[in-house]
């Protein structure tokens, strides 16, 4: 029997966590615990990562722009969780855009993303 606490409204599995490593522009790192099913934006907010996230996850700005490690980016692409057209439009105006850029509000964490490295752009 699965004893994980599941937030059925949001699909968050509170007893199943993964590690996410944030890499800051100065090279320093912060390792965080994150629940499977939550967005990267929630992890950013819950761990005081210095990103403004101005629209609160409404897909209306690009302030939660992050750069994913190539492995994690490819996992999202192969799991059909690639950036939507709306996300891609917003990323076009993001500063420091890279090939593996995503908006944190649109990245939903899965078990396969355990250990992902997230670069915070300058």
From TrEMBL:
Keywords: 2Fe-2S, Iron, Iron-sulfur, Metal-binding
GO BP: any one term: P450-containing electron transport chain
Family designation: Belongs to the adrenodoxin/putidaredoxin family.
InterPro entries given in the database record: 2Fe-2S_ferredoxin-like_sf, 2Fe-2S_ferredoxin-type, Adrenodoxin-like, Adrenodoxin_Fe-S_BS, Beta-grasp_dom_sf
Domain 2Fe-2S ferredoxin-type: 18-122
Protein name as annotated: 2Fe-2S iron-sulfur cluster binding domain-containing protein
A GO term, aspect molecular function: 2 iron, 2 sulfur cluster binding
Cofactor(s) essential for the protein: [2Fe-2S] cluster
One Pfam family named in its UniProt record: Fer2
Domain of life of the organism encoding this protein: Bacteria
Keyword Nuclease belongs to the record: no
Species of the source: Candidatus Cytomitobacter indipagum
SUPFAM superfamilies per UniProt: 2Fe-2S ferredoxin-like (SSF54292)
């Amino acid at each position: 029997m699965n004893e994980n606490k599941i937030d059925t409204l949001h699909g968050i599995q509170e007893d199943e966590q993964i590690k996410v490593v944030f890499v800051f522009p100065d090279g320093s790192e912060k390792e965080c615990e994150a629940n499977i099913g939550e967005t990267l934006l929630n992890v950013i907010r819950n761990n005081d990562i210095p990103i403004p996230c101005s629209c609160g996850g409404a897909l209306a700005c690009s302030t939660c722009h992050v750069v994913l490690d190539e492995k994690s980016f490819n996992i999202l692409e192969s799991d059909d969780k690639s950036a939507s057209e709306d996300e891609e439009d917003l990323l076009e105006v993001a500063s420091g855009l890279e090939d593996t850029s995503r908006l944190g509000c649109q990245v939903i964490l899965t078990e396969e993303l355990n250990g992902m490295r997230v670069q915070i752009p300058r």
